[in-house]
């Protein structure tokens, strides 16, 4: 470090950060020359707790790794345990998992868009995004009894079914949400201040993003067509969709990609409801998990990776997960280099960081 | 049950990782897992076109193995975490947090190691 550089601790408590994360910024005047992320403020040892609970109780634990991604955490975990048990879940459960997962993705992306709007000082846009998000949370509450921790996945399928009335209600609500979101979408597309604040900010080219292990919206905004839903897990293999990909690779692209993915999620929910097969939505698991398995799912922030090891007992021997934000730590450092201090908040938010997920 | 699993000696991992990088694989993560005999399994996962390739090596507790963070920078964070939680160390780490990546000061060392018993500390309200 040269003498005229200063080290500025950004966080762990900062108005723009929803959760505690510290980044030590090495500054030369107003420009970032290096950054060192520091985590460990909300490490809860949940991977260890899994070893103390039986595999059915552990569904509740993984849901609490992060509220915003709780459906996908449970989905990845349940898929892994089901693979260890050799359990094939009913087709209806696979479609139901898609419906709730995509609703979750929508509310997570709207949460992100609101936080991003707040970070670049567009308060009314922030409130409009969250107002629309409330409607999705209402659907969650009506269909599961909870707004965030919906606890809908379990080993063997889902805990609840969707009645025809509920399905019709979701489709109607999605039409209303689409109408409302199109107005907000126009602001993201056309507002000059948003473009001025985000366009060209912290670009991460395709090769660099791939080399640094980027996943999800960050990778897709850099032109990498990577989406774990294309693995075909749950009912995604039966649905018609292609990953949304943008090429500008800057903060604007990372924001707009989420805007476009909200429409994609609406379409996936509609497809899943239209194709929802009749039959059971749960099958009782038998036996105990034995062996090693890796389960991957596309969370709102990108690929989540679960490693599970069972030894034939009720409790898993080991569970390890790697969340998208953990994968984005190296790329965040790269994005920050050369940027102005005043842009640091939006750059950090552009990866949609989830620290609870990262630290477990 | 893990597709495309390759079992290697720890001394052969770096060469294989180099090959995977040349073939265009993306680093996904590394996982540590302590066995009943005290040895530690290390899994290295890589992805290409949504297909996973996983390398597995088993090392003795307390051993220092070669870091792959010079090949994939993204591995540095996973290696820091494993070196704090398990009884395995990495040589040549590009970014070394020195045991303060995820664990707080005063936390038990290697809490995921074999035979580590962590004493429970109750809060002030415990009877």
TrEMBL record, chain A:
Alphabetically list the UniProt keywords.
Answer: Iron, Magnesium, Metal-binding, Nickel, Oxidoreductase, Ubiquinone
Query: Among its keywords, does the record have ATP-binding?
Result: no
The coiled-coil regions, if any, are none
Q: Which GO terms describe its molecular function?
A: ferredoxin hydrogenase activity; NAD binding; nickel cation binding; oxidoreductase activity, acting on NAD(P)H; quinone binding
Residues the entry annotates as binding Mg(2+): 47, 321
Q: Which InterPro entries match?
A: ComplexI_49kDa-like, NADH_Q_OxRdtase_suD, Ni-dep_hyd_lsu, Ni-dep_hyd_lsu_Ni_BS, NiFe-Hase_large
Per its UniProt record, the required cofactor names are: Ni(2+); Fe cation
Which positions in this protein are listed as binding Ni(2+)?
66, 69, 354
Specify whether Metal-binding is a keyword of the entry: yes
Superkingdom classification of source: Bacteria
Which PROSITE patterns does the record associate with it? NI_HGENASE_L_1 (PS00507)
Q: Where is the NADH-quinone oxidoreductase subunit D domain?
A: 121-284, 288-360
Signal sequence residues: none
Binding residues for Fe cation = 69, 357
Q: What is this protein called?
A: NADH-ubiquinone oxidoreductase chain 49kda
Organism of derivation: [Clostridium] cellulosi
Automatic annotation (TrEMBL), chain B:
Q: Name one GO molecular function term.
A: NADH dehydrogenase (ubiquinone) activity
Q: Quote the Pfam families the UniProt record gives.
A: Complex1_30kDa (PF00329)
**Start and end residues of each NADH:ubiquinone oxidoreductase 30kDa subunit domain:** 12-92
Q: Which Gene3D superfamilies match?
A: NADH:ubiquinone oxidoreductase, 30kDa subunit
InterPro entries (UniProt xref) = NADH_quin_OxRdtase_su_C/D-like (IPR037232), NADH_UbQ_OxRdtase_30kDa_su (IPR001268), NiFe-hyd_3_EchD (IPR012179)
What's the protein here called? NADH:ubiquinone oxidoreductase 30kDa subunit domain-containing protein
Please name the source species.
[Clostridium] cellulosi
């Amino acid at each position: 470090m040269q003498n005229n550089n200063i080290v500025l601790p950004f966080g762990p408590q900062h108005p723009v950060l929803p959760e505690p994360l510290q980044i030590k910024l090495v500054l030369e005047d107003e420009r970032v020359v290096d950054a060192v992320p520091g985590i460990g403020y909300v490490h809860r040892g949940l991977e260890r707790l899994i070893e103390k609970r039986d595999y059915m109780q552990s569904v509740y634990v993984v849901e609490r790794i992060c509220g915003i991604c709780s459906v996908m955490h449970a989905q990845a975990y349940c898929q892994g345990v089901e693979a260890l048990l050799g359990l094939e879940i009913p087709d209806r459960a696979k479609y139901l998992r898609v419906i709730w997962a995509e609703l979750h993705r929508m509310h997570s992306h709207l949460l992100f868009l609101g936080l991003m709007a707040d970070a670049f000082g567009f308060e009314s846009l922030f409130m409009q995004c969250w107002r629309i998000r409330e409607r999705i949370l209402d659907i969650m509450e009506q269909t599961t009894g909870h707004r965030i921790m919906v606890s809908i996945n379990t080993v063997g399928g889902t805990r609840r079914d969707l009645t025809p009335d509920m399905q019709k209600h979701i489709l109607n609500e999605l039409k209303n949400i689409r109408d409302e979101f199109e107005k907000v979408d126009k602001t993201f597309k056309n507002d000059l201040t948003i473009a001025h604040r985000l366009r060209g900010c912290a670009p991460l080219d395709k090769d660099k993003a791939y080399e640094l292990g980027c996943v999800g919206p960050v990778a897709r905004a850099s032109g990498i067509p990577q989406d774990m839903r294309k693995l075909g897990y749950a009912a995604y293999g039966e649905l018609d969709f292609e990953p949304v990909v943008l090429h500008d690779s800057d903060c604007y692209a990372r924001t707009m990609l989420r805007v476009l993915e909200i429409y994609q999620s609406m379409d996936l929910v509609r497809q899943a409801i239209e194709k929802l097969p009749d039959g059971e939505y749960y099958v009782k698991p038998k036996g105990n998990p034995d062996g090693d398995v890796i389960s991957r799912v596309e969370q709102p922030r990108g690929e989540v990776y679960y490693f599970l090891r069972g030894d034939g007992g009720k409790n898993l021997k080991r569970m390890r997960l790697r969340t998208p934000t953990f994968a984005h730590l190296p790329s965040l450092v790269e994005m920050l280099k050369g940027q102005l201090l005043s842009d640091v908040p939006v750059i950090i938010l552009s990866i949609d960081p989830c620290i609870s997920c990262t630290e477990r | 049950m893990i597709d495309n699993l390759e079992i290697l000696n720890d001394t052969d991992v770096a060469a294989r990782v180099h090959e995977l990088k040349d073939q265009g694989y993306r680093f996904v993560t590394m996982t540590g897992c302590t066995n009943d005999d005290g040895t530690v399994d290390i899994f290295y996962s890589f992805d290409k076109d949504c297909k996973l390739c996983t390398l597995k090596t088993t090392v003795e507790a307390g051993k220092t193995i070669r870091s792959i963070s010079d090949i994939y920078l993204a591995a540095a964070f996973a290696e820091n975490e494993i070196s704090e939680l398990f009884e395995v160390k990495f040589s040549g780490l590009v970014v070394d947090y020195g045991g303060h990546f995820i664990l707080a000061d005063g936390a038990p060392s290697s809490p995921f190691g074999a035979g580590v018993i962590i004493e429970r500390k109750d809060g002030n309200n415990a009877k």
